[in-house]
Amino acid sequence: MPDETIHQPHDKLFKQSFGDPENAAGFLRHHLPASVAEAIIWERLVLQPGSFVDSHFRQHESDLLFSASIGGGDGLVYLLFEHQVNEDPLIALRLLRYMVRIWESHHKDRPEKPLPVIVPVVLAQNETEWRISDRFSSLLDLPIGLETDLAPFVPDFRFQLVQLAGIPYDALRGTPAGILVLRVMKAERSGQLLSDPVWEESLLQQIPGPVFEMLLRYLLDADVDSEGFHRRLNEISQTELKDSAMTLAQQIRQEGRKEGELEGKLEGRLEGLREAVLDSLAIRFACVPDGMTEAVRKIDSESRLRALHQASLRAESLDAFADNL
């Protein structure tokens, strides 16, 4: 994910589902080297804050960051779990930046403790597999013939790249909720949200109610075929599950209609205020420049438009009014 906050449905689905340590553990323990997975005490997996501020005061936010005990003693490992929907050739550089921030934060809080190991894991949701190296050193321009001699001076690590495109639906592992979320994420990229793996009833029956609601919201946000969606709901054989799904789908649609009505009313008020500002300017100054008209029409803040309306009534000139834009 880019550094800026993203409000895409698949990002929310990832964070809400795998922000649960149980779901995260169910997935991660199957995608780390067996010796590492066996050494981690998964029952002690804890979600950590994942926001870091760099020297230019720009905030960077990792997707999910977990801590856990490792090695049976006081050993500490951080699991940096990143979600990607687009291939990023520089993902290793961003991971390194996060890792440095994590180490800095750890040292600040516990200066007497050694720095913990950080294991980066990247979940790629793309429809096709990435064609990049999983080593940081692959980004460096190492002179031919000097790779070995320069190696001691080069920071290097590898990240675990898990590509949904290369994993069959029935090979996805984890908790029932985690498996179903992964199937949905995989299906979304290939337009298969109404396929059998997503609607496997044995999985649907095992997931908690909030996860089921979250998945239904995701499916409806994805604008799946309405007829196909209702057919899938009707094909659910377990009566209680079917009734719950029908009720939730109806509630979600009603919420969507209400939100649409509220947005429509707000847009109506905004358009009225824009016209009031421009009418006032036209009455007082006869001609309103096109650039000023365009600037006013782009404003979508009700409070700002009300302030501009007052300014349009009081400003001594168009230049004076422009100072408020």
The general outline is extended
Q: Indicate the structural class.
A: alpha/beta
Roughly how many Å is the radius of gyration?
A: 26 Å
Number of strands: 7
How would you portray this structure in words?
- The chain is of the alpha/beta class.
- Among the domains are: 169 residues; 54 residues, no CATH class.
- Helix content is 50%, strand content 13%.
- The protein contains 13 helices and seven strands.
- Helix 10 runs parallel beside helix 12.
- 24% of the residues are buried.
- The N terminus is likely disordered.
Produce a short descriptive summary:
The protein has helices at 9-18, 21-28, 34-39, 91-109, 147-150, 176-190, 201-204, 209-221, 226-235, 239-285, 290-297, 302-314, 318-322; strands at residues 40-48, 51-53, 59-61, 64-70, 76-84, 117-124, 160-163. It is an alpha/beta fold and 325 residues long.
Tags for this model:
13% strand, alpha/beta, 7 strands, 325 residues
Write the layout of secondary structure elements.
Blueprint: H1 9-18, H2 21-28, H3 34-39, E1 40-48, E2 51-53, E3 59-61, E4 64-70, E5 76-84, H4 91-109, E6 117-124, H5 147-150, E7 160-163, H6 176-190, H7 201-204, H8 209-221, H9 226-235, H10 239-285, H11 290-297, H12 302-314, H13 318-322
Parallel strand pairs: 5-6, 6-7
Antiparallel strand pairs: 1-4, 2-3, 4-5
Helix pairs in contact: 1-6, 1-8, 2-6, 8-10, 10-12
